[in-house]
Amino acid sequence: MDDRVHPEVRRTATEIDTMEIRGAATIADAAARALRTQATESDAADAEAFRAELRAAARTLHETRPTAVSLPNALRYVLRGMSSTTVEGLRQNVVDSADEFCARLERAQADLGQVGANRLRDGDTIMTHCHSTDALACVEAAVEQGKHIEAVVKETRPRNQGHITAKRLHELGVPVTLIVDSAARRYLNDVNHVLVGADAVAADGSVINKIGTSGLAVNARDRGTPITVAAQTLKLHPGTMTGHTVDIEMRDTAEVVDDETLAELGNPTVKNPAFDVTPPRYVDAIVTERGQFPPESIVILMRELFGEGTSEPWAEP
Predict the structure, then answer these.
(1) Do residue 152 and residue 233 come from a single domain?
(2) Annotated binding residue at 210?
(3) Does 191 share its domain with 215?
(4) Rg of the chain on CA atoms, in Å
(5) Does 159 show up as a binding residue in the annotation?
(6) Which of 29, 124, 134, 199 is catalytic?
(7) Residues 264, 228: contact at Cβ < 8 Å?
(8) Which among 38, 96, 124, 302 counts the fewest CB atoms within 10 Å?
(9) Residue 125 and residue 98 share a domain
């Protein structure tokens, strides 16, 4: 571990890695705040040392989640604001950029919720997968508009993130039916929309999200149930415009089965991918704070926001 990295940054990185901090927007917010702490607590002797320290902190954060696109997008936003030639000037650059990023993040989810709520009608029932604050923002906005919404919530093993979704929906006054993941197809005829979030959206409109999303989307298309992806623009993966692929994180097998049970089963190989890729042909719309887009058109928004590619400002020059 790099000694220049502040303990608060290391703690944040650990909590992102262990999923104590989860959800793309929450991860991005935590990363920006961690860099802010690194800047305010830095005792770097000169501007170059300060820049190197911030790059080291950003690398520590970046290495925790290879598919959480919001994380590098947050790091880019904060680091690119460093324009001063003095330590105090750079410190203020980082503080200002981090504060601005977090404020925009808070507004973005509310704006996205209003766009997504327009797709929901009074009396609709949705089906959810995993836990997405962006998807919940759509439901919350719909409820605030006076619409009655009900939900079928997949439990989403192995970490049961659906339980978090069920609790939050209950707090919003939304009647919830919790189902095992394998029962999704049975209940698709009872819902009007599948509403999910995204960890990343590729330039071709493919959606990278919690494992099981792709299978749900295929079943939804077969049943004629529209699927909406709620994703802030910070989840757009600009690297995919220049040919980069999205790594699929493999989680610890202990999340699936403990060592004792594994031995009793004859020590089979266990695979625990965190995410899968849903092709754009199975997605009806991607809802962002900038509006609603058919998946094939998301690259237009991506180019508007990021240009034709991205750099990695945390890398050593």
Answers:
(1) yes
(2) yes
(3) yes
(4) 20
(5) no
(6) 199
(7) no
(8) 96
(9) no
Instruction: State yes or no: is 190 an active-site residue.
Output: no
Retrieve residue 47's tokens: 């501007």
CB atoms within 10 A of CB 68: 27
CATH at residue 36 = 1.20.120.420
24 carries a ligand binding annotation: yes
Q: For the whole model, what pTM was predicted?
A: 0.80
Task: Please tell me whether residues 126 and 270 are part of one structural domain.
Answer: yes
Whether residue 17 is found in the same domain as residue 68: yes
Catalytic choice (130, 134, 138, 284): 130
Residues 75 and 223 in one domain: no
- Could you give the number of structural domains in the chain? 2
Helices marked H in 172-278: 184-187, 213-223, 259-264
Q: Is residue 130 among the annotated active site residues? A: yes
235 is in an annotated binding site: yes
What letter represents residue 314's amino acid? W
Reported in sequence order, the residue ranges of the chain that DSSP labels E, i.e. its strands, are 125-128, 150-154, 176-179, 193-196, 200-201, 207-210, 227-230, 275-278, 285-288, 291-293
For residues 210-242, one letter each, b for 16 or more C-beta atoms within 10 angstroms of the residue's C-beta and e for the rest, the string is: bbbbbbbbbbbbeeebebbbbbbbbbbbbbbbe
Q: Which domain holds residue 177?
A: 120-306
Q: Which of 109, 143, 175 is the last residue of a domain?
A: 109
Q: At what angle do helices 47-62 and 87-117 cross, to 10 degrees?
A: 30
Residue 93 domain-assigned (yes or no): yes
Q: Does residue 219 have a known ligand-binding role?
A: no
Q: Does 288 lie in the same domain as 235?
A: yes
Task: Let me know if residue 114 belongs to a domain.
Answer: no
Look up residue 245 and give its DSSP letter: P
Structure tokens at 143: 């409820």
- For residue 267, the tally of other CB atoms under 10 A from its CB is 9
Peptide linkage before 158 cis (omega within 30 of 0) = yes
pLDDT one-digit tens code per residue, 168-221: 999 999 999 999 999 999 999 999 999 999 989 999 999 999 999 999 999 999
Which tens digits make up the pLDDT trace of 219-231?
999 999 999 999 9
- 134 and 87 in a single domain? The answer is no
Summarised one tens digit per residue, pLDDT across range 21-75 is: 987 788 999 999 999 999 999 999 999 999 999 999 999 999 998 666 889 889 9
For the cut 70, the answer to whether the pLDDT of residue 271 exceeds it is: yes
